[in-house]
Amino acid sequence: PAKPFFLFNRLADSVVLVSNVLLLAFHGGICQLVSNDESVREWLGKIVWVLTIHTQTRISCLNAQFLFIPLGRGMLRTVVTFFSFYLVATPLSAAVALTDVFTRSVTAKLMACVGSTSIAQVVLGAYSFYFLRKLDWHEAGAIINRRANNDKRQLEDSA
């Protein structure tokens, strides 16, 4: 049962990868479409590669997390998300962007702000995929089936 799930993840990653390659290949034209302001286009051109990393980590992270709620593990998902974003990525981003300890470069500070979500998503995705690798997929299917049928029974009882 896990093979189709992980195949789905690889396919989704591949689709986003193709779109990211196109974004990188044509980023000059895309930046021109986004803004008429030359300085905005210049700054966007400097960080567009960070945005491609963001979209790649985002799709992987979302795919790794979407079974938590149907499995009744929504609170675990919330705790891991809080940890990844607020205890890992935010302090790192703040330290780089708001101090001169690591760099004085405005470009690096901007990349730290934008890239911190990717850092959080890597942590979140790593934990989520670890959780899914250890998952008993037959039991997970039974849990989701029971929950889905329980919702159906509640609708029948109220009618």
Structure description:
By secondary structure, the chain is mainly alpha-helical. Helices cover 86% and strands 0% of the residues. Helix 2 crosses helix 3 and helix 4 packs antiparallel against helix 5. The chain is elongated. It starts with a helix and ends with a helix.
Report low-confidence residues grouped into runs of 5 or more: none
Number of strand elements: 0
The helical percent reads over 70%
Distance between the termini: 35 Å
The secondary structure category is mainly alpha
* Major sheet size, sense and barrel closure: none
Shape call:
elongated
| Radius of gyration, CA atoms, in whole angstroms | 20 Å
How many distinct helices? 6
Question: What secondary-structure arrangement, pairings included, does this model have?
Answer:
Layout: H1 2-25, H2 27-34, H3 38-65, H4 74-98, H5 106-134, H6 137-158
Helix pairs in contact: 1-3, 2-3, 3-5, 4-5
Key terms for this structure?
6 helices; mainly alpha; 159 residues; elongated; single chain
Task: Summarize it.
This protein has six helices and no strands. It is mainly alpha-helical and 159 residues long.
